[in-house]
Amino acid sequence: WAPPLVFIDLPAGGRVVGYDEGATAAVSVVEDAQGVRRLRIDNRQQEGSSSSLLADARQALLPLLLHPEPRRALFLGLGTGVTARSAALDPKLQVDAVELLPEVIAASAHFAAAVGGDLQNPRLRLIAADARRFVRASNRAYDLIVSDNFHPARSGSGSLYTVEHFRAVRERLAPGGLFCQWLPLHQLDLPTLRSIVAAFVRVNPGGFAILATNSLQTPVLGLLVRPDSPRFDLAGLQARLDASHLPRSPAAFGIDDAWALLGSVVAGPASLAAFAAGAPVNSDDHPVVAYLAPRLTYAPDSLPRDRLLALLAEWQIQPAELLNVQADPDAARRQADYWTARNRFILAGRSVQPSADVRQMLAQVQAPLLSVLRTSPDFRPAYDPLLQMAAALAETEPQQAVQLLVELQRIQPARAEAEEALRALGAGPASVASTNGQSVRTVLP
Questions:
Q1: I need a surface site. Which of 35, 271, 336, 419 has the fewest CB within 10 A?
Q2: Average pLDDT for residues 389-395, to the nearest whole number?
Q3: Pairing state of beta strands 37-41 and 26-31?
C-alpha cells in the first residue's frame, strides 16, 4: 500500500513492503511476485535486492579475508545492508556502517533475513551521516574500510571517487589496514573509470583491482590497497580461511581456498598505472566524474560485458606484484594459471545462449569449460556447471553423463563431487578406452 500521490512502480503481482519519505529522498522496498525485494530511491534507482546475496556478501568477504586479522571495519554506504551485515557476522569484528539517508537505514531491516544472524547485531553500528564528512571528522582508525559501489551518475556520488576523499580514507586506516573501493562497471563507461582509477592510484600507487564475481551482466570492480603490506602469503591466506569464524563457510560464497581468494585479482599496480595514464584525475576542483558518468545512463554506447572483457584484455597481473615468487615459484605459477583460467572462463560465457535443454547447453560449454579446468586444476567455478549438467543428463543419457563425470574426476581429483555422482549412478567396473590417441579412463554403468 502507498499513500496518494506517491509514485511507486509495481511489477505484476508485486507489493510495497515499505515506504518512507525523507527530507531528501523517498525510499521504497518493493517485492515482486517471486518474493524478491528491491530497494529504490525516488522510484528510479534500484539499490540492490534480496536475490543478490552472493555478490553483495562477497563484497564484504573478499576484503575481509584478505586482511590477516581485522578487528574494526568501516563500511561507507549501506544500501540493503547485506554487505555490512555479512561482515558483522564475524564474531571478532566490530563494524561501523555510514549511510547518508536515515530512510535507507530503516529500509535495510527488510533485507536482514537474507543474511541471517541477529537483526540487532551488537557488533554492527549503523550511522546516519555523510560518508565524506564522517571519514574526515572521525578520529578512529580502522583495520578495514570498504566503500560501496555508488552509482556514479547520482548527484553527489562523484565526490566519493576523488583524490581528496581517497586521501582522507587512507588517513583513517590503522597500521596494516586495507581499503577497498567497489565500482559498478555496469554503470560506468571506461573513460569515467579511467578518471576514478587515476584518482585512486595517485593516492595509492601500490593498489590493484579485483572482481567481486565473474558476472558478465553486472560486473563489479574493486580497487584495493594494503599500504603497509603490498604482498600476500598464500599459506597465510589459507590459514585465514581455515580459521574463519563466520557462521557460513567462505566456500559457500565461492571462496573455497587461497587460490580462489587471490584469484579475484584482475590487475596489478603496473596495469592500473598504465590504464590511468593521461586520464583527467577526478578531484574536488576538477569533478570530471560528475560530468562524464551520466552519459552512459542516458546514451549507453556499450554493454557491461564488453567493457569487462576489454579490461581483461588490457589488464595484467604478474605473480611478483602480489606474491614472493622466489620463496615459492610453484605456488606463483599455480596462481598465474588460475588467473588465466578465470579470464578464459569469463570469455567463454560471452557467446553462451541459455537453454533449458541440457544437451544444447553442453554442446556450447563442455569443451571450453573442460579446457578452463585443464588450464588450472585449482579453478573451480567451471566445475560446478558441468557437474550439474551431468546430473541432469544422467536421466536420459547416463553413459554420456558418466564420461563427463569421469573427466571431471580426472582433471580435479581433489574434489569428491564427481566421484560421489558416479556412485549415485551406480558406476561399476572401470575400463580404458582410446580417444583421439590418448588413454582415457571411463566407467561403465
A1: 35
A2: 91
A3: antiparallel
Q: Are 442 and 410 in contact (CB under 8 A)?
A: no
Distance CA 65, CA 74 (A): 15
Look-up: residue for cell 594494503?
A: 226
The SS3 of residue 143 is: strand
When pLDDT is averaged across residues 231-240 and rounded to a whole number, the result is 94
Q: Report pLDDT for 46.
A: 63
CA of residue 160 relative to chain centroid, distance: 20
Whether 281 contacts 164, CB under 8 Å: no
**Burial (CB count within 10 angstroms: exposed 0-12, middle 13-18, buried 19+), residue 103:** buried
Closest CA to 13 of 33, 43, 29: 33
Question: CA-CA distance, 290 to 208, in Å (whole number)?
Answer: 24
For the chain, state the CA radius of gyration.
23
C-alpha angle with apex 35: 123 to 109, nearest 5 degrees?
A: 25
- According to DSSP, residue 44 is labeled T
What type of residue is 218? Answer: T
**Closest by CA position to 36, among listed 14, 59, 8:** 14
What are the pLDDT digits (tens) for 45-73? 666 676 788 999 999 999 999 999 999 99
CA 314/CA 337 separation, integer angstroms: 18
CA-based nearest residue to 347, from 324, 319, 313 = 313
Angle between helices 417-424 and 398-411 (to 10 degrees): 150
Cell readout for 354 is 541459455
Output DSSP code: residue 284: T
3-class DSSP state of 4: coil
- Residue 393 has, within 13 A of its CA and on its CB side, a CA count of 24
Distance, CA of 49 to CA of 139 (rounded, Å): 33
pLDDT, one tens digit per residue, over 75-115 is 999 999 999 999 999 999 999 999 999 999 999 999 998 89
How, if at all, do strands 45-49 and 124-128 pair?
Answer: unpaired
Kindly report the length of the chain: 445
Q: Which three cell numbers stand for residue 15?
A: 507489493
d(CA 399, CA 380): 24
What is the enclosing helix (H) or strand (E) of 193? helix 190-203
Helix axis angle for 163-171 and 190-203, nearest 10°, is: 40
Closest CA relative to residue 270, chosen from 330, 319, 218, 208: 208
Spatial contact of 221 and 304, defined as CB atoms under 8 Å apart: no
The closest alpha carbon to 31, from 8, 54, 4, belongs to: 8
